[in-house]
């Protein structure tokens, strides 16, 4: 089967399962004050474009593009089911959200990730993201890494 990426509503069983797995994973690595996870209701806002990765009919990955209202957006809730790792799902999600950001005319994409997630950090660096200071409402956190990629 081939992996497909599409914009879909986050409120569906397969996505909720992935978000729960993502929450559990983040909670296993970081204290509550260092977890900056958007809940399901926040992912349904008009400023959010939500991407779903499917392998056949199975939902195997997701991520959100959250527009900040200033010409930039943040990548949130990037997660791939462990059973689908090796299928390049995360890279396909990144391609899809960067394409969407360019179509929207956004100038930059930003993200916050944890320092205990070397695979995620490696993915973002591979896609050209560089470290920056905390942005938006984030406060400095020794367990967080903030990154940005300029698009224009």
Write the layout of secondary structure elements.
Elements (H helix, E strand, L loop, with lengths): L2 E5 L5 H17 L10 H4 L4 E8 L2 E10 L4 E9 L8 H15 L4 E7 L3 H9 L3 E3 L11 E7 L2
Parallel strand pairs: 4-5
Antiparallel strand pairs: 1-2, 2-3, 3-4, 5-7, 6-7
How many DSSP E strands?
Answer: 7
C-alpha Rg (nearest Å): 14 Å
Structural class: alpha+beta
**Form type:** globular
Order of helices and strands: EHHEEEHEHEE
In short:
With 152 residues, the protein is of the alpha+beta class. It has helices at residues 13-29, 40-43, 89-103, 118-126; strands spanning 3-7, 48-55, 58-67, 72-80, 108-114, 130-132, 144-150. Strands 1-2-3-4-5-7-6 form a seven-stranded mixed beta sheet, with helices on both faces.
What are the key terms here?
152 residues, alpha+beta, seven-stranded mixed beta sheet, 4 helices
Describe the fold and architecture:
This protein is 30% helix and 32% strand. The chain is α+β, with helices and mostly antiparallel strands and 152 residues long. The longest helix is centred in the first third of the chain and has 17 residues, at 13-29. It is globular. The mean pLDDT is 96.
């Amino acid at each position: 089967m081939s992996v497909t990426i599409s914009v879909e509503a986050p409120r569906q069983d397969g996505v909720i399962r992935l978000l729960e797995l993502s929450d559990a994973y983040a909670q296993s690595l970081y204290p509550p004050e260092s977890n900056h996870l958007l809940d399901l209701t926040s992912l349904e806002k008009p400023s959010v474009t939500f991407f779903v990765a499917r392998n056949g009919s199975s939902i195997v990955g997701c991520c959100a593009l959250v527009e900040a209202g200033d010409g930039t957006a943040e990548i949130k809730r990037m997660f791939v089911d462990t059973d689908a790792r090796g299928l390049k799902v995360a890279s396909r999600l990144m391609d899809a959200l960067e394409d969407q950001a360019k179509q929207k005319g956004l100038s930059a994409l930003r993200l916050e990730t944890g320092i205990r997630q070397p695979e995620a950090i490696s993915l973002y660096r591979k896609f050209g993201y560089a470290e920056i200071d905390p942005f938006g409402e984030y406060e400095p956190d020794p367990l967080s890494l903030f990154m940005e990629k300029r698009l224009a």
